[in-house]
């Protein structure tokens, strides 16, 4: 790798706050991640593994050294490239793209299959991104250094009985929310409230610590099951709830809305698909309420279910092969029914245990590039947000929980049901959740699911039935409409994309996110060529 002769930091000023250490040292924190205001000292920020960019410069104000991190879960995307011995770092990938740059064919295929580009890559070969848990370092006249300072699920596990684990979890849970509620007590807190346990736990802990100024928001079709459960939770905790009703027509209209297209580019950054589902919710809130944005903070439940163990597949619990791992990743994360498993051939898995490898992939790819990236909905609209389930101390606890207690969220669900929710009469669906856990621990039930999953006819019937309870109805119904609008709006890009899909993947989509992925990539290819076409 070549030595760097110049370092250029090209950030969007309104998104970052600069803090000065002395006349030659300073660091930048992302303005909209409210955890950036929890701590003043850079060493504490690094200890808590929050995103930052640290620089040292000489008397001529030229950068001599840079160190940058996107945090535990790539909460804030940071991109970089080396051009003519100059390292350029930016929060906006478009500042790094030259007119001659072409989309990389291989990375385009990865985006089509997963809705994000794998590892530290983007759609452009020479432009990289800093991964979750990764630190970039560079000094003038030295080569660029990348090092992993955190790997999810790495390290020793607790060797104690379940009751002690309950005690450990209670300690870290309460200390985490004690910190968050103390720092946010003067804010208006908005919680996207679903029917699940993660957002339910957030509002319960806010109530536990006496926070009063809370607005819960639920969205989806009228009378969907998520909103029904959210209504029960909000009523029992005496918090206000606003339900945003979605319909397919609104979603179609978005595709011709310049504001939405600007958001899609802002959130996707030619590396991972931006979230569509909360855009309408944010539009509704902006139109209905006259919030002072500095006084508001969003607390989503990202990604509490993952850190507590819900994404570990049964087939990887015992002796399993690399092929089992690849199949599991494609089944859980793939957007298309593709047999192109060689997309993972050079993936740098870290563990001997395949269940840990799928968690590693899930953490560094989907959770970081898609789920946590949903926070772009908030900062695009000028609002701050926090991620309590990715607070360092909380995550480190779950990295040490043994598999037997982590699988199917056994420890997490049982603790919440018995120690937290019962106190507020929020364990109303406890039996339902217990039955789900029992089913997912049953070998024969799991095998039956696998057989059903492979049956086209059964999947078609299931899809039709699913429309009756899908809380985000509209996405399933408008897939073909999305493709048609992409064809009309981006004719050249869509044609190029379809030629690649026909050649490499086929049109067998198995995930609704395949449609907006093709829409976004059609938009990208309308402007950029592909290097192998």
Provide a descriptive summary of the structure in words.
This protein is of the alpha/beta class and 533 residues long. The chain contains 21 helices and 15 strands. The protein has helices at 42-47, 105-114, 162-184, 197-208, 225-237, 248-254, 258-268, 279-288, 304-307, 322-333, 354-371, 376-380, 392-399, 403-406, 410-420, 430-439, 443-453, 456-466, 479-489, 491-504, 514-527, and strands at 6-10, 16-22, 25-30, 52-57, 63-69, 79-83, 86-90, 128-129, 134-139, 145-148, 188-192, 214-220, 240-245, 296-298, 384-385.
Please specify the SSE layout and strand pairing.
Layout: E1 6-10, E2 16-22, E3 25-30, H1 42-47, E4 52-57, E5 63-69, E6 79-83, E7 86-90, H2 105-114, E8 128-129, E9 134-139, E10 145-148, H3 162-184, E11 188-192, H4 197-208, E12 214-220, H5 225-237, E13 240-245, H6 248-254, H7 258-268, H8 279-288, E14 296-298, H9 304-307, H10 322-333, H11 354-371, H12 376-380, E15 384-385, H13 392-399, H14 403-406, H15 410-420, H16 430-439, H17 443-453, H18 456-466, H19 479-489, H20 491-504, H21 514-527
Parallel strand pairs: 1-7, 11-12, 11-14, 12-13, 14-15
Antiparallel strand pairs: 2-3, 3-4, 4-5, 5-9, 6-7, 6-8, 9-10
Helix pairs in contact: 2-21, 4-5, 10-11, 19-20, 19-21, 20-21
């Amino acid at each position: 790798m070549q030595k760097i002769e110049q370092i250029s930091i090209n950030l969007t000023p309104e998104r970052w706050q600069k803090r000065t250490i002395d006349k030659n040292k300073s660091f930048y924190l992302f303005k909209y991640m409210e955890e950036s205001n929890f701590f003043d000292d850079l060493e504490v920020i690094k200890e808590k593994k929050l995103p930052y960019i640290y620089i040292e410069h000489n008397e001529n104000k030229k950068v001599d050294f840079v160190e940058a991190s996107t945090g535990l879960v790539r909460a804030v995307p940071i991109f970089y490239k080396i051009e003519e011995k100059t390292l350029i770092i930016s929060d906006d990938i478009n500042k790094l793209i030259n007119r001659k740059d072409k989309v990389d064919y291989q990375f385009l295929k990865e985006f089509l299959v997963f809705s994000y580009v794998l590892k530290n890559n983007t759609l452009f070969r020479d432009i990289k991104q800093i991964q979750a848990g990764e630190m970039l370092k560079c000094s003038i006249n030295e080569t660029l250094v990348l090092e992993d300072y955190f790997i999810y699920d790495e390290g020793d596990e607790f060797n104690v009985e379940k009751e002690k684990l309950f005690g450990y979890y209670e300690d870290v849970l309460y200390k985490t929310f004690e910190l968050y509620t103390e720092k946010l007590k003067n804010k208006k807190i908005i919680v996207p409230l679903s029917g699940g346990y993660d957002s339910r736990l957030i509002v319960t802990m806010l109530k536990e610590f006496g926070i009063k100024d809370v607005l819960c928001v639920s969205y989806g079709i009228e009378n969907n099951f998520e909103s029904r459960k959210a209504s029960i939770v909000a009523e029992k905790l005496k918090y206000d709830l606003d339900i945003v009703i979605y319909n397919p027509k609104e979603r179609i209209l978005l595709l011709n809305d310049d504001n939405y297209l600007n958001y899609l580019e802002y959130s996707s950054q030619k590396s991972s698909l931006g979230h569509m589902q909360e855009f309408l919710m944010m539009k509704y809130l902006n139109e209905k309420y006259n919030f002072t944005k500095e006084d508001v903070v969003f607390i989503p439940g990202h990604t509490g279910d993952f850190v507590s163990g819900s994404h570990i597949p049964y087939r990887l619990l015992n002796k399993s092969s690399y092929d089992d791992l690849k199949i599991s990743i494609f089944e859980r994360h793939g957007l298309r029914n593709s047999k192109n498993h060689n997309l993972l051939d050079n993936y740098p898995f870290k563990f001997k245990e395949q269940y840990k490898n799928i968690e590693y992939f899930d953490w560094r790819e989907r959770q970081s590039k898609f789920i946590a990236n949903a926070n772009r909905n908030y900062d695009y609209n000028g609002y701050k947000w926090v991620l309590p389930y990715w607070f360092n101390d909380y995550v480190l606890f779950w990295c040490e929980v043994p598999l037997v207690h982590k699988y199917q969220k056994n420890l997490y669900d049982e603790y919440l049901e018995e120690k937290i929710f019962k106190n507020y009469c929020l364990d109303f669906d406890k039996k339902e959740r217990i039955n789900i856990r029992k089913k997912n621990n049953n070998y024969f039930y799991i095998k039956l699911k696998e057989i059903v999953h492979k049956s086209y006819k059964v999947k078609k019937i299931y899809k039709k039935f699913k429309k009756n309870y899908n809380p985000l109805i509209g996405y399933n119904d408008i897939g073909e409409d999305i493709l048609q609008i992409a064809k009309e709006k981006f004719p050249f890009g869509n044609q190029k994309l379809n030629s690649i899909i026909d050649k490499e993947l086929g049109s067998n989509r198995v995930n609704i996110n395949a449609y907006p992925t093709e829409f976004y990539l059609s938009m990208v290819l309308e402007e950029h060529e592909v290097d192998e076409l």
